[in-house]
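[Solved] Which block belongs to which protein?

Original post:
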Amino acid sequence: MKLLTFAIPCYNSAAYMEKCINSLLAGGDDVEIIIVDDGSTKDNTLEIAKKYEALYPGIVKAIHQENGGHGEAVNTGLRNATGRFYKVVDSDDWVDGKSYKKVLETLKSFSEDNEPDMMICNYVYEKVGAPRKKVVHYRNVFPIEKMFGWDEMLAKFKVDQYILMHSVIYKTSVLKECALELPKHTFYVDNIFVFEPLPFVKKMYYLDTNFYRYFIGRDDQSVNEKVMISRIDQQLRVTRRMIESYLSLEHNNEKCRYYMRNYLRIMMEISSIFLILSGTKENLAKKKELWKFVKERDAKLYKELRYCALGWSVNIPGGPVGRGISKIGYKVMNKLIGFN
């Protein structure tokens, strides 16, 4: 069994995927790197994947599939994973070499009868044109370099500090235990990937190292503002699924439940603000429908999401004036945090 499986979803990624792959090869025989070509049509993504498979047998696997979207590529990686732990690295991102060594050394140090269900590391925004690199860490939230549970968290998360796909390494058996299956042909499923397994997580470990490098700067990137507005229906689909998941899963720990509820507040805020930014009557109607959906599904959850700072910020009364204030608030937060 391998120690760590990396899945790299690729779709027309030839221009940048080799930087990602090369950064992972330093793991040697301790890792497997599953490159999933998601039906690329415009370049030689599959050819590059097969080249690495031939050069590094036993480490790299190249898998070609009909186009199913980012989520299906993650699913394919998980189905084929043989590592004790599983991590997704997007094809335009990469990992830091020094941090990588620390990650592998730490994972090796765990005995199989006492290992974390989830390991968290820091990630770095590699944003084109940014004057400095923003590091997202968790020093104020998690005990450092020790095993802990939900009840041992130190403080609440800041708004820019949530556990994202960039920061998480899951124990593979946890993902299989919760029967994780991401939807096909849908962007923003990385939120589901980190969200749905959380009630199955009992033991965590925080390694304070800047491991993952998250690239932001391509015009066609899914987090680009214009792209997000054009794909808002997919964002809504993901948000609704996460709400259904939250309501249907058993929550044995109140702090886990509290964290997941706050994550939903962010998802509702993101969905709402991009519907507002679009400015169309159709999308403003979709915003009302989204909040109505939550209210009809669970009145208590609706109150918890609606009557908080984030819920208020996207439901300011006054029609166009209120929406204008919401837009300004979003622009200010984007400048402060730099999330897209």
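(Second protein starts here: sequence line, then its structure tokens.)
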Amino acid sequence: MQDKIWRVVEWATGNVGSRALRTVIEHPRMELVGLWVSSPEKAGKDAGELCGLPATGVRATNSLDDILALDADCVLYMRQGTDWDELCALLASGKNVITTRGDFHNPRLMDADIRARVEAACAKGGTSIYSTGSSPGFVTEALAIPLLSLERRHGVLTIDEFADVSSRDSPEMLFQIMGFGAEMAPFDQRRAEHLKGDFGSSLSQVADAMGLEIDAIEAFGELSATKQDLTIAAGTVPAGTVGAMRTTITCLHKGEPIMRFRANWYVTTDIEHDWDLRESGWRVTTGGDTPVRMDIMFPVAPEDYAAFTPGLTAHRPVNAIPAVCAAAPGIRTTVDLPQIIPIFA
């Protein structure tokens, strides 16, 4: 194991994929053997060129067959959306898969037919697949589990995620897509439902392992107005318009909440509602007989956030490669894998 070199394919080169690609190239115990890209313009380019590193000799392809023909231990699957045909083909070809897609956090909640297809592909290839990232993934599973291990009577696990986006110079993203600076109106609950699947399945994975099987998952979104006119990196946010938004995912056992995730996104903390907003990061609180509270902040300058944040999601999948490649075939989860430990030499 100490001499093992893992042969890795990177699948897609968005913000997170590009960071993962760079990390694999620079990793002392990994060898990049393939790169899949969705864009015809990127096909044929050297992997190093696509992530700001010197040439590697590995050229990008948008052909699934090219990747299937490779001898690789693992594919880092980081595309937008899940293509079940290509995913099952990768697994059946003998390649383990680690993905930032949230489809596999809790196999019990998967569509039965899709789960059967994936498990059959894993059995054929002798491979495993694992969903992880920073959130969901690290904070909802890997960090939550040791805190919960202090309990003998469970109350409610609450995870607050705080994201101050005021320093992001992305007007289209903040104003048109997310809706900051818009007139106050009822929250579009379809947006809350979008987060429900990934975060609900991640939290319920941990609850199931505790013997508290989740029987319902609820999602609810809220908006709060800024109290004053703001000038942020992306433009102006007038007083009385949307200055913060919060989405809450709650997992229930026998009708009672036992796991909760709240995504707090904002451009100011000076809002109409008392949401106890703070700087970007996470706050994890456990109830029960041994309550604890952990606050995590990111000591990074606002101007460095764009370069910093992709690593939060990209690095854990890369670090998980040894554990997933050694795991039994099938859909693997954080509760049945060993601790994910980074290898630096």
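Accepted answer:
You had them paired correctly. Confirming on the second one: DSSP finds ten helices and 14 strands in the chain.
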